[in-house]
Specification:
Blueprint (H helix, E strand, L loop, with lengths): L2 H18 L6 H5 L8 H27 L7 H26 L7 H30 L7 H9 L27 H18 L4 H14 L8 H19 L4 H18 L6 H15 L11 H8 L1 H22 L6 H44 L1
Length: 378
Amino acid sequence: MDLYFSTPLVLICLTLAIAIFSLPVFKFIDEDTDPARSNSMDGIRYVLASFVIFHHMDCAYTYITKGNWAPTSDLLLYMGKYGVALFFMITAFLFWGKIRKANEVNWVDLYKKRLYRIAPLSIFCTLAALGLLFFLTERNEFSISVVTNALSWFDVGLWNYKPPVTSFQYSFMALAGVTWTLRWEWIFYFTLPLLFIFKKWSFELTISLFAFSLYFLPGFTNDAYLWSYFFGGMLCSEIKDRIIITKKTANALLALMIIITMLAQPTLYGSPEKFFLCIIFFSVVSGANLFGFLITKAAIRLGAISYSLYLTQGLILFPVILHFQANNKFELNVRTFVTLVLCYLAICLISSATYHFIERPFIKRMSFSSLIKKVYSR
């Protein structure tokens, strides 16, 4: 997608979603969330999840027109990669922020809560994705290997193995290939007990880990850049408690860094990129809200359902991809533009339902369980 197509697409999709989710009909999302959640963290989650969706729309366009799942738009590529990077930073910021201040951590309870948070929607989307593959693509003759491959999909992100279950070889497209990030979320969760041991030196630890992931770790693994995002989020948690800035300053810093990043276009996964992202993230956790945009009622609602936005996107995009590929008609015109906008809005609407009916009941169950434990521990 070229810049003249992708830029209006992003702006119109975000604007329409904000307008629609401002309506009273979506008040049920407010009832499902903590009333105290009025900071910009939810709003930024919505923007980041949307960035990933736009990036995958670009990949879908390339697949339909050229036969390979790859980005063509530099703008949407940066959006997608930075969206994932900042999601990892949010995870590290929140969980490191919790455990570094705790005297002791109930690790069984923590992992149980993570499982309850991740697994229900993951299992639902896996069932839906397999259904789409069996229904919309050419099925193989039934065999034990088909069953084995299908069962491998129900890993709730722990190892992210999604083998083909039909003759269609790009089976990951049914979930837009997003589940690899769940595996990295789990990897970070499993490192928390080790990090907790050194919490007494939390500031020194996070600086050292961040520097190590930038300058030395790339010599050992190609995944160094992923670790740097997590360590960057941990570092921001430490810096936030030591450097206090006003919301006005945070907003100015965020706007400035967005402009600088757009102009500089740092090499993806390079060291300068990490510093830019850390400053952007630090401004958000310090209160930046893009001059009120990130704390609008609609942005908070859409941020609350961001996990659903992220995980359900493939369920909408995949049938559309197969349809247009079969008809061999997918040009950058008004028809395609409207189709992609409708896809985006459909993802938002479906996500509000999956959050309410699938995610939220398990969140409430874990909250109730924690409340019972507190009562009986008095």
